[in-house]
Amino acid sequence: MASRVLYLLGCAAPPVLRIADVVDDAQRAGWDVCLGLTPTAAHWLSDQLPALEQQCGHPVRSRYKMPGQPDAWPPATAALLAPATFNTVNQWALGITEKFVVGFAAEAIGKGIPLVTMPCVNAAYARHPQFDRSVETLRRAGVRVLYGEGGFVPNAPGEGRPEAYPWGRALAAAAEALASTGAPD
Description:
Elements: E1 4-10, H1 19-28, E2 31-37, H2 39-44, H3 49-56, E3 78-84, H4 86-94, H5 100-111, E4 115-119, H6 123-126, H7 129-140, E5 144-145, H8 167-179
Parallel strand pairs: 1-2, 1-3, 3-4, 4-5
Helix pairs in contact: 4-5, 4-7
C-alpha cells in the first residue's frame, strides 16, 4: 500500500465522469486513493460505484459516517477537491458543511492537511461576485486553488470541454502541496 494517501473529492461537474481514469493516474503516481463524492456526483456515477470501490480498495463516500462509527479510510496526507462546482467552492469558503466532501475540506484547513482544489464553473458563474470572494478566501486559508492560468479557465455556458479538464495538473499540484510540507514522498 502507498504511504501517500490522497483524498480525491469530486463534485457533480462533467469531468467527474472520468474519475476512474484519474484514480488510475493517481495510483500510478504512488497514491493510495480514497474517493469521496458529493451526493449528486455519487448519483451520476451510481453504476460505477462498486468498480470504483474495488479500484480504490476503500469505500466510496458521499455521506458523513455515523457518530462513533470507525473511519473506513486511512488518514489523508493530501486532498484534492476537483472538479469543484460553483456551489461547492462557495459553501466551502462560507463554512457551510452539509456535504461530506465540503465538511472534510473545511476541517482539513484547520488540521493543516495539504489541500488543492480546481474549480469547474462556466464563465457566467465565474462572474458572480461571490465566486471571486470564495476563491480568495480559500487561498488566504492556505488552499492551493488552480483557477485561471495554470489551472482551470472557464468556458462560456454550454461550451464546456470536460475532456480538456486539466486533471494531470491537479494531481501534480497535490504532490507539490505534499512536498511543500516536507513530508516524505
